[in-house]
Write a structure and sequence with these properties.
Blueprint (H helix, E strand, L loop, with lengths): L8 E3 L5 E2 L6 E2 L5 E3 L1 H16 L6
Antiparallel strand pairs: 1-4, 2-3
Keywords: Plasmid
InterPro entries: Rossmann-like_a/b/a_fold
């Protein structure tokens, strides 16, 4: 059985900057982090794979 977890990198919410003219998020120089919901799904998939003795890669 294979488990697939899609993760997305998002700008770190503690360091988001907004462009003053366009009111859009400025991505330059802002570190990224894994979306917290995706991280939770990844942890659950890994826990499930170890519980049913499957290999995770």
């Amino acid at each position: 059985m294979h488990l697939v977890v899609c993760i997305k990198q998002v700008p770190d919410s503690a360091q988001i900057r907004v462009h003053p003219v366009t009111n859009t998020i400025m991505h330059q120089g802002v570190p990224t982090a894994i979306n917290p919901h995706a991280s939770r799904g990844l942890h659950r998939a890994l826990a499930g794979s170890s519980r049913i003795s499957r290999r995770a890669s």
